[in-house]
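Is this the right way to post structure tokens for a design question? Let me know if I should format differently. Anyway, here goes:
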């Protein structure tokens, strides 16, 4: 053991329980043993799964250490036994496991560290839920606290980390079939930890953690492909609704319709591009202020929206009185991690504090304030909008209830004349009207009337008015106050209506642009409706003609309304469709705009159903086309080799002619070659049928090219003499189905020989490139134009054939289908100097 280098650690990281990390670990061990490596099993948890337990057959399993604890006997990994055995590779499952008190180490990962120091390679497995830094995220997603964790540093020091993954639907199907847990636990698991949202969130959490780790296996892209539709929600068992988490970066850029928008969009796109490997989303949002902001050119917004979509982002529009809060509500709603704002265009000291307010309230969202050419070049003091907000109404009531007594307290000692006092009180009433509208002003007028009568109208401190002109003055005072209050309130209402009309017009123009761009897909439209009106859920309901019951056609947001009566607002689109909204009751003018969205939702539904009909008709038309082509082609191509073979056999059976041995050999060769062609044609037809039906069985295993190629050459028959192979020694094994790979090679070589000029051999070469192994079939024929490279893979194509007797044109189509079924690619390339090179690329076996 002395002087032996430190062992290497390879970890299989599972995205959820039951994805097969122990199975993957055992499969790797069996492959290593087949290569002659000394492999033992230190500890493996099969959890009663038969398929996993079968992989233990034939592997050496070391005895476990027995430990008593609280009257019960437990078994743990025997570190001393592993070190004494000193294998080349040992399997140790459940890296996050906590050992029984009294064990050599408190944690199993500490046992593994000792074994690695002894120079023994270790393969282990752990679930993403046990990674220490992700523990809180996993609890927020699933509602389950994992008490056993592995420090991130332990995993980061591993020599290789491989993600073990299954699509959430597949994992749930395995669970439902009883492959993971006993039958009495399946229902609880499906509605709890194994909810679809939870599994999707865990997959993306694992992807995000491994995104910057170069030790991830070569199958990363395949296993981590996005399901990914934007937001990821982890579902909490027992709780209605979901809890959101930042599975991926999302950058939101705020647009005002001003000239700075282009700069902001490009800056946000650069921020998003820095996180390209983390799958960053770019979203642009325009807040239509209920105060009716003067800035915000619709034409500029349309141009900026086009720029956002060109850069791969999405455009959104919301309505809100408080711009910072509306921005943050949208950002939190889409789970944004970064928010990009432009510096104010107004000159100091009148610059509005949208950026400062947003930054103060942003919480975990990073806020970027971006300077631009228009910074500080706008107008000075912004003219206050006339809409009576909550703050203004509170100010009006404060002036009415507090300002009047204070003014009276100030004027009593001064002893001014009654006209002067009336004017001062009238000024305060007008101020209350300007600030708070009619009711604070009316209250102020009545309060002022009482104070003037009591303190300032002789005789003072009584409600009696001695002089008639004072009565007239007080009456005119109240009348003027009422008139001013009414005018101010009416102006505020008209201003609000105008602002709302402008906001509605902008929303409708956005909807029109949404439709004109062909984005009228129903889910997208409902999501846009929910964002625009700030609702929790928007649902399109349809009533059944037979039963009269309502069913959900499409929904966006949280818990959908299942009937018009369960919604806060419902809009009847037609006799059968209703748009139901939950979250808050909508005002009358908002309902009018919602009706436009409902009408467009009905159009989107009809388009969606027409597309579904077209999609169903498309495969039928393709099947009919293929059937027609097959009948036309097979009529000749099956009869030709069959007729040749039959003629040769009948000639041999004939007693009228005496055949020489040479003639008999030639006739037998003709029959043999014809039957080979016939067999190949029928096999291709059957395999193409299985491929299109998705019923072709594929069994991948480590395969050496030098083992498959001789069998393919033998299948060529007489064509083998026109083949030249150049396979370098020492090529790594590939992951493939030997029988299917042999079929692919036979088809490609046969096709190459058919087009190769006489006397020129077809060459077959191979080489390793990164994580793939490439096999090339090279001919010196006429080749094909670059624009036709993809057409040669369509069934029943004979592109470039010199005659019409070369088969039904399935060889290349079948070859690509079989290659892709094995997880590889088949691509045509021009041969330098003329001809065509077909390149098969398959993954290296792990």
């Amino acid at each position: 053991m002395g002087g032996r280098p430190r062992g290497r650690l390879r970890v299989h990281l599972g995205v959820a329980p039951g994805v097969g990390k122990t199975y993957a670990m055992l499969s790797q061990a069996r492959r290593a043993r087949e290569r002659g490596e000394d492999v033992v099993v230190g500890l493996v948890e099969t959890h009663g799964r038969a398929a996993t337990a079968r992989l233990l057959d034939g592997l050496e399993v070391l005895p476990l250490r027995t430990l008593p604890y609280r009257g019960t006997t437990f078994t743990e990994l025997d570190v001393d036994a592993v070190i004494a055995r000193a294998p080349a590779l040992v399997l140790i499952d459940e890296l996050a496991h906590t050992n029984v008190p009294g064990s050599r180490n408190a944690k199993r990962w500490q046992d593994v560290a000792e074994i690695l120091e002894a120079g023994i390679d270790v393969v282990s497995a752990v679930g993403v839920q046990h990674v220490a830094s992700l523990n809180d995220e996993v609890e927020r997603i699933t509602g389950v606290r994992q008490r056993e964790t592995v420090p991130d540093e332990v995993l980061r020091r591993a020599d290789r980390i491989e993600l073990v993954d299954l699509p959430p639907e597949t994992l749930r199907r395995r669970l439902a079939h009883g492959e993971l847990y006993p039958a009495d636990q399946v229902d609880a698991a499906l509605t709890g930890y194994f909810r679809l949202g939870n599994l999707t969130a865990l997959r993306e959490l694992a992807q995000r953690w491994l995104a910057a780790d170069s030790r991830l296996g070569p199958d990363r892209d395949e296993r981590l492909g996005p399901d990914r539709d934007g937001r990821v929600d982890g579902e909490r068992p027992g709780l209605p609704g979901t809890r959101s988490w930042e599975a991926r970066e999302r950058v939101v850029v705020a647009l005002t319709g001003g000239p700075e928008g282009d700069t902001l969009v490009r800056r946000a796109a650069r921020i998003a591009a820095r996180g390209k490997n983390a799958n960053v989303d770019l979203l642009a949002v325009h807040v239509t202020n209920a105060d009716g902001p003067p800035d915000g050119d619709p034409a500029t917004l349309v141009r900026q929206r086009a720029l956002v979509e060109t850069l791969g982002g999405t455009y959104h529009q919301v309505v809100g009185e408080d711009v910072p809060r509306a921005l943050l509500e949208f950002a939190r709603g889409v789970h944004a991690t970064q928010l990009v704002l432009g510096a104010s265009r107004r000159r100091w000291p009148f610059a509005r504090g949208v950026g400062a307010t947003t930054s103060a309230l942003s919480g975990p969202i990073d806020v970027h304030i971006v300077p631009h050419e228009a910074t500080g070049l706008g107008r000075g003091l912004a003219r206050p909008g006339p809409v009576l907000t909550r703050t203004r109404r509170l100010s009006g009531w404060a002036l009415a209830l507090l300002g009047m007594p204070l003014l009276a307290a100030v004027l009593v000692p001064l002893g001014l004349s009654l006209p002067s006092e009336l004017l001062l009180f009238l000024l305060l009433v007008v101020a209350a009207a300007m600030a708070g509208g009619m009711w604070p002003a009316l209250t102020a007028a009545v309060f002022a009337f009482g104070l003037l009568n009591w303190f300032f109208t002789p005789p003072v401190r009584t409600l009696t008015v001695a002089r008639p002109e004072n009565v007239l003055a007080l009456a005119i005072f109240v009348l003027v106050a009422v008139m001013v209050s009414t005018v101010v309130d009416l102006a505020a209402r008209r201003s609000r209506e105008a602002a709302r009309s402008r906001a509605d017009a902008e929303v409708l123009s956005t909807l029109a642009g949404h439709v004109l761009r062909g984005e009228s897909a129903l889910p997208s439209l409902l999501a846009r409706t929910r964002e625009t009106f700030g609702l929790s859920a928007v649902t399109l309901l349809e009533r059944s003609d037979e039963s009269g019951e309502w069913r959900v056609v499409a929904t966006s947001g949280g818990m959908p309304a299942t009937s018009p009566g369960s919604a806060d607002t419902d809009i009847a689109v037609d006799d059968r469709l209703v748009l139901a909204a939950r979250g808050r009751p909508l005002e009358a003018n908002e309902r009018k705009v919602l009706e436009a969205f409902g009408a467009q939702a009905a159009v989107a539904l009809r388009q969606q159903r027409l597309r579904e009909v077209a999609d169903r008709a498309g495969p039928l038309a393709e099947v009919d086309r293929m059937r027609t082509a097959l009948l036309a082609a097979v009529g000749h191509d099956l009869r030709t080799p069959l007729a040749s073979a039959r003629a040769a056999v009948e000639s041999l059976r004939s007693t009228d002619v005496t055949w020489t041995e040479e003639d008999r050999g030639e006739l037998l060769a003709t029959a043999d070659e014809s039957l080979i062609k016939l067999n190949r044609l029928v096999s291709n037809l059957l395999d193409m049928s299985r491929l299109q039906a998705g019923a072709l069985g594929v069994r991948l295993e480590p395969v050496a090219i030098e083992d498959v190629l001789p069998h393919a050459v033998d299948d060529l028959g007489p064509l083998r003499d026109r083949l030249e192979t150049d396979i370098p020694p020492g090529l790594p094994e590939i992951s493939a189905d030997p029988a299917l790979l042999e079929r692919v090679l036979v088809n490609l070589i046969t096709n190459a020989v058919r087009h190769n000029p006489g006397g020129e051999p077809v060459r077959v070469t191979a080489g390793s490139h990164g994580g793939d192994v490439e096999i090339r079939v090279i001919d010196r024929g006429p080749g094909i134009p670059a624009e036709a490279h993809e057409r040669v893979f369509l069934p029943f194509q004979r592109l470039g054939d010199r005659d019409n007797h070369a088969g039904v044109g399935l060889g290349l189509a079948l070859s690509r289908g079989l290659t892709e079924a094995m997880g590889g690619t088949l691509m045509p390339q021009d041969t330098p100097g003329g001809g065509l090179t077909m390149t098969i690329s398959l993954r290296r076996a792990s």
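Format looks fine. Someone answered above. Worth noting: The longest helix spans residues 588-637. The radius of gyration is 39 Å.
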